[in-house]
Design brief:
422 residues, Beta-Lactamase, 56% helix, elongated
Length: 422
């Protein structure tokens, strides 16, 4: 196996210029021009591309000034190799050939500027170096800005995915399940645990735990959860807490035994708070390495914890509303049944009242005759049924019409039906 690549180091706080020139005369005038016109620059001189590459392996330079025609390497290859070795270092090529085609080729190979050796060209070197250093500084700022924007964009995309997962249900079990699983998948941690306070707010319970295979789940009786809960209550600061196994502050020492037992190298815990009320906590840990949680990750977890707190509160409110709605449905059903009973009772009462009114007007024998009339029996059939004479039956029918102010036998039948005497 070859030797591991060495990381270049900066040996001076001054701006460092690597000057590569095989001609001693040109090397001397260029070095003198840089030192005299730009005394804040530190110059190191070499005469070959190989020496320059060796220096770039161990030192950091701010700019490289090189002759295009070096004795040990073709100009285009030298520019390419130096650019590959130090991609962020500006390369200024000087050459005795003033050619537009050559200038374009040099720039395409990785150089940042081109200076022909015409007249007292070396007097322009300090200004050219300063210009390229400033350009490199601006490019570095743009790269850093782009990295920050890209990182922020990735964090927002991750946050949006997690928010969608968390708010995709109003069932509490679904909310904590999706939140824990999504955090585990997205952040690639060893364990993701969501703890919620029991009714009354005195004890933490594990609502959901996602643990990698081969790892032991953490018990909700662990000192890890109770100690952090006590800290939140005692200190009053509901802030995230990061603990490494080797930390020496009081709480880290209190939970170290559990961290060792569960193989935790580092962990982070974030409180779940909604409208000033503590609901629980979010726990993530890493067992395969000491994870140094970045400020961006902590900020993301805080925002996720806020969204999870809202989702948990909404799910609990939905459960209350759903229970009340079911109770209202049951009450409505009972009211409907009660109305049915009341209606039946009213109908029975009206029927009994109607019958009582009829009994007041009619004798028992007249009611019997009326019922037979309502059934469509003739006077003879009524007489035979009641064992009376047909003449007596005619008298009863006549009295019925008179008492009830009815003019016909059909009217008697209708009256009987209306008064439930049929």
């Amino acid at each position: 196996m070859g030797e591991p690549a060495r990381t270049p180091i900066r040996k001076s706080e001054k701006r460092k210029v690597l000057l590569v020139e095989d001609s001693p005369a040109h090397l001397a005038v260029c070095e003198e021009a840089i030192r005299s016109l730009a005394p804040d620059y530190e110059v190191e001189a070499t005469q070959t591309a190989g020496e320059a590459l060796s220096k770039l392996e161990v030192e950091v330079f701010d700019v490289v000034v090189m002759d295009y025609n070096l004795p040990d390497m073709k100009g285009s290859d030298a520019v390419k190799t130096i650019h590959e070795r130090a991609p962020d270092c500006p390369i200024i090529v000087i050459t005795g050939v003033d050619s537009q085609e050559l200038a374009l080729a040099v720039l395409r190979n990785g150089a940042s500027d081109y200076l022909p050796k015409l007249g007292e060209y070396y007097r322009f070197l300090p200004r050219t170096i300063s210009t390229n250093l400033e350009r490199a500084r601006l490019q570095e700022q743009l790269r850093e800005m782009y990295k920050r924007i890209e990182a922020s964009s990735q964090e927002e995309a991750l946050l949006n995915r997690l928010i969608v997962a968390i708010h995709s249900s109003l069932e509490l079990d679904d909310v904590v399940d999706k939140a824990a699983q999504s955090l585990s998948d997205e952040l690639r941690v060893s364990r993701t645990i969501i703890c919620l306070l029991r009714d009354g707010g005195e004890h933490m319970r594990i609502a959901r735990q996602v643990t990698r295979p081969q790892l032991e789940p953490i018990s909700e009786r662990s000192e890890i959860f109770s100690s952090y809960h006590d800290l939140l209550l005692d200190v009053g600061e509901r802030r995230p807490l990061i603990i490494m196994r080797e930390d020496t502050f009081a709480l880290a020492q209190d939970v170290r035994a559990d961290m060792l037992a569960y193989g935790i190298m580092s962990m982070v815990m974030v409180p779940l708070v909604y409208q000033g009320r503590l609901l629980g906590l979010l726990h993530l840990d890493q067992c395969d390495h000491v994870r140094l949680w970045t400020s961006g990750e902590i900020n993301l977890l805080v925002r996720i914890a806020n969204q999870l707190s809202i989702a948990v509160s909404q799910a609990r409110l939905y459960k209350i509303v759903e229970t009340q709605s079911k109770n209202i449905d049951k009450l409505t059903e009972l009211c409907t049944q009660l109305n049915t009973v009341v209606s039946s009772t009213r109908e029975l009462t009206e029927r009994q009242e109607s019958q009582e009114k009829v009994r007041v007007k009619l004798s028992t024998r007249e009611i019997e005759v009326l019922r037979k009339v309502a059934r469509g029996l003739s006077n003879r059939e009524i007489a035979e049924t009641l064992h009376i004479t047909e003449g007596t039956t005619e008298v009863h029918v006549s009295r019925l019409r008179k008492k009830l102010s009815l003019s016909s036998r059909a009217a008697l039948v209708r009256y009987a039906f209306e008064n439930h005497l049929s």
